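Obj: model holo form, ligand = calcium ion.
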Amino acid sequence: MQHERGSEVGQWWWDPDSRRLRIEPDRQASLDEIGGVWTLDSLGVVLDGLSRSRLARMFDMAHAPNQEVACALGLSTGRAVRLVGAFGQNGRASGRLFRAPGPELSQQAGPGPDLDAVFQPIVSLVTGHVAGFEALARWDGESPEDHSGDPSMDEGALAQNMLIRASEALATWCRARPERSIFVNVNLTGRDLASDDLPNLVEALISSHGFEPGQLRIELTEQAALRDAGEAIRVARALKEVGAGVVLDDFGSGHSSFSWLAALPADGLKIDPELTRQIEERKVRVILETVTLLASRLGMSATAEGIEDLKQISLLRSLGFHYAQGFAFSHPVSAAQALNLLDP
Ligand code: C2E
Ligand code: CA
Ligand code: CA
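Output (holo C-alpha cells):
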C-alpha cells in the first residue's frame, strides 16, 4: 500500500531502551503539537487510538538492521503525518517526518479488501452472558495477536467499512438468536464525526437491518472533542436521534474530563484498563466504585475493559460495574466465531 510521501517536515528517532520516540518537526511546519520526546502511551494525547496502536505494533515487532519503517499517523487535530525511515542496530530506528498529501485523511481512497472486522465480547456482570461485542479493525488477515500490518491511512473509509461490517455481523447474530437483544460497538474518531454523511449512513444501516434503538453503538474518546468539541457533541446528538447508542471510551485515561462527560449524550462509560489493573489498591477501588455510581446516576452503564483475570469479576460486580470485556473472556474473534460465544 504505497502512498505519496507528501512534503518533508521534520525528523524522528526511536530509542528501544527508554521506549521513547523523539519527534522534531521543522519550525515552519506548524506541527508543534507532536514535537517532543514521547512514551507511546503519552502519544495518545495527540494521536488517535488506531495510530497509537499501529505505532506500538511497529516498534514491538522483531526487526533486522536496515529494515524499513513506514507508518501513517492521524493526529487528533485531523491532520496526518507519516514516519519514514529504517531500523539501525539494537532496535534503534530513525528517519524523516512527512506531512501526508491532501488536506484530510478522509478524502483519500478507501482501504482495500484486506480490512477485516473482529469482535470482542462484552459480558454482562448481571446475567453472566455475552451481551454484545466491540468491533475492532484488522488488516491483511492479521490475527488479533499478530499486529504486523501497516494499514492504509484512510480512516474515513475505515469508519464506513467498520460500520457496515459490524451492522452485517449484528444482523446475522440477531437472525440466529432472535430472542436475544445483542449490541455491537464501533469505534469512531473525531475525524469520522466531522463527516456530514455519518448520521445518514448510521440511520440507513439501522433502518435497513431493523435494529432497535441502541443496538448499534458508537464508541468515542475525548480525542473527538479535541478537534472540535461543539461539532463532536452535535454529531453525537444526531447519532442518538437516528437510534444509535453513544459510549464514552477510555474514561479515566489521560484525556477524559467531566465537562466532556457532561456535554456528551452518552449511554455508557468504558473505564480505562489503567485503573482496573490497580484494583488491588483500596484507593483505586473507591474511585472505581464512585465512577460506577456516577455512571448509574447519569443513567449510563459502566464497562470495565482490558480484564485479563477472571478472579477480578466478582470484585468488579461488587464495585457496581454492569459489563466487563477483556482477554479473560475472549480475544477478538471473527463474526462467525462470535456467534458461538452467545450462550445457549
Ligand atoms: P480501544 O478502543 O480501547 O480497544 C481495546 C483494545 O484493547 C483492543 O486493541 C483490544 O484488542 C485490546 N484488548 C482487549 N482486551 C484486552 C485485555 O484483556 N488486555 C489487553 N492488554 N488488551 C486488551 P486493538 O484491537 O489493537 O485496538 C487498539 C485501539 O485501536 C483501540 O483501542 C481503538 O482506539 C483503535 N481501533 C481499533 N479498531 C478501530 C476502528 O475500527 N476504528 C477506529 N477509529 N479505531 C479503532
Ligand atoms: Ca474502543
Ligand atoms: Ca478503550
